[in-house]
Amino acid sequence: MKETVSELLQSALAALQSEGTLPADQTFTPQVGNTKDKAHGDYACNIALVAAKAAGCPPRQLAEALVDRLPESKAVAKVEIAGPGFINFFMSTASAFEIVETVLNEADRFGRNDSGKGEKVQVEFVSANPTGPLHVGHGRGAAIGDSLCRLLEANGYNVTREFYYNDAGAQINNLALSVQSRAKGLTPDDDSWPADGYRGDYIIDVARSYLAGETVTADDREVTGKGDPEDMDAIREFAVAYLRREQDLDLKAFGVHFDVYFLESSLYQDGKVEATVKRLQENGYTYEQDGAMWLRTTEFGDDKDRVMRKKDGGYTYFLPDVAYHLDKWQRGFTTVINEQGADHHSTVTRVRAGLQALKAGIPQGWPDYVLHQMVMVTRSGQEVKISKRAGSYVTVRDLIDEVGRDATRFFLAARRVDSQLTFDIDLARSQTNENPVYYIQYAHARICSVLRKLADEGVNRDRHECIGDLSILALDEEKDLANQLAKYPELITNAAAQREPHHVAHYLRELAGQFHTYYNAHKVLVEDTALRDARLSLYLAVRQVLENGLDLLGVSAPEVM
Predict the structure, then answer these.
(1) Given the DSSP bridges, would you call strands 375-379 and 158-165 parallel, antiparallel or unpaired?
(2) Which segments of 67-205 are extended strands (E)?
């Protein structure tokens, strides 16, 4: 319907341009929005205020001229001018329910579009160090990142999901030392335990598996434990593979998959880090000072230059990041989105500066970043901080075991990424209207229950069957439901463009709320079969959109609860 209103206004604008009221050499694009107050109609547009200066007349006068030149349309019941020149459209009842047929005809394709035209987009998310189980922060990144991928795919993009493993550096060495200590029978209480060692029970599992000579498979490699507690290289290789496998199992339990697993170590093995350093040197953006090599990142907007190679000859963390992102660009990804924790904020400017210093044709401001804030887990109003398995933090697996995959994914994706999130375990477990994922899933299950009752009476309805005369749906609640369904396609477009999956969760909560209100107030299984069938068609459309939206969040749509 919004497109219909826009087309009507475009026609009126063209008429005024042909008459000379508006200049013919300018382009005027009406922005049609949903009204907040239904007393002001279904849609509103401020084009008269925007174009009044070009017309040389007051906005309200221009609005009157536009309304006079609107083509006749059965879709519009009434048009009003409000305030200084807003144009409000009241849609006809018949037109409002056309969306029901559209939803049922398009089914799981409803809301999807081809605006992306198959453009390659890479989304990097989670990217946890292979040093332990995934914590809730990784879980939030997984929920947001995977939902964003689903949204981009719904808009016609060719999406590659990528996980970057920091499998080099001090943390990996600490992991190997921790496993070696456990293999030798030490505990974190021993004086000789590594100062920065990992203390979780999972280290015991890794050590036992290594000593037993077990074989683990992690994406691109198969590693067998040598059983020698003195062989640090063997321990390191086995521990990384073991924990990569464990993280992969966590992600599978979370319903998240990746197309590419990229190892930081490969950048060194393939000479890409050294090649990046050489290119930066040749471009004149490096200098030596205090025994270290620096990069002139201030020339690209950073607040100070950054050390690239330390005195001991090792590289700082952002240098391999630059090499890694150059590799992304060379793989043909003109759009790259990095979903990471907010603690990566300081790396954004540095990585972008390094990429500009390469002079590789990479646009400024590339790549895109989506940075999520921290998660606090609570139970009975108290913060939960410790998992026995991890030793010092709550894991994704803990949450899945406590509340299930659906609630975990929904809760972690349902807030703005830049807002801190409190994950209330008690709320996520509850079967009440206050639990948003239960509330939404229950709306879907309620509709399925109605269809089962109808089937018990010998009347079967196909899930995509539009039946009955929709024009007899005259209640305000019915029209509100139809209008809410009509908002879904634009929601999918905007949520992807803004990189904000939480809008889907909010939309579903509102749709479910409108449905529950309608369900509680008006029966669908009435004796009037024409009214019954019309309401069933509306029910079926609501069910389809709930299912489509939940799928974008990686959440199931149960038929029974």
Answers:
(1) unpaired
(2) 76-82, 86-91, 120-125, 158-165
As a whole number, mean pLDDT of residues 134-148 equals 97
DSSP string for residues in 166-200: --SSHHHHHHHHHHHHHHTT--TTSTTS-TT---S
Cα within 13 Å of Cα(523), Cβ side: 7
* 216: β partners: 223
Establish how many alpha carbons lie within 13 A of residue 528's alpha carbon, considering only the half-sphere containing its beta carbon: 10
Burial 511-545 (b: 16+ CB within 10 A, else e): bbbbbbebbeeeebeeeeeebbbbbbbbbbbbbbb
- What the block records as the tokens of 146 is 């995977």
What pTM was computed for the model?
0.88
Q: Tokens for 210, please give them.
A: 């290594």
Amino acid identity for residue 537 in this structure: S
Burial of 429 (0-12, 13-18, 19+ CB in 10 A): middle
What is the amino acid identity at position 248?
A: D
- 3-class SS of residue 197: coil
27: number of Cβ within 10 Å: 7
Strands (E), 274-412: 286-289, 292-295, 306-309, 335-341, 368-372, 375-379, 382-384
Give the pLDDT confidence score for residue 386 in this predicted structure. Answer: 66
User: Could you tell me which of 430, 433, 410, 437 has the C-alpha nearest to residue 421?
Assistant: 410
Pairing mode, strands 260-263 and 158-165? parallel
pLDDT digits (tens, 9 = 90+) for 233-259: 999 999 999 999 999 999 999 999 999
Where are the extended beta strands (E) located within 209-326? 215-218, 221-224, 260-263, 286-289, 292-295, 306-309
User: What's the order of all strands across the beta sheet hosting 382-384?
Assistant: 382-384, 375-379, 421-424
* Residue 363 burial by Cβ neighbours in a 10 Å radius (0-12, 13-18, 19+): exposed
Q: What are the residues whose beta carbons fall under 8 Å from the beta carbon of 353, sequence distance 6 or more? A: 295, 297, 299, 300, 301, 302, 306
Which amino acid is residue 460, in one-letter code? Answer: N
Confidence of residue 388 (pLDDT cuts 50, 70, 90): low
DSSP-derived letter for residue 198 is -
Which of 19-28, 198-207, 496-505 holds the top average pLDDT? 496-505
- Whats the size of the chain, residue-wise? 561
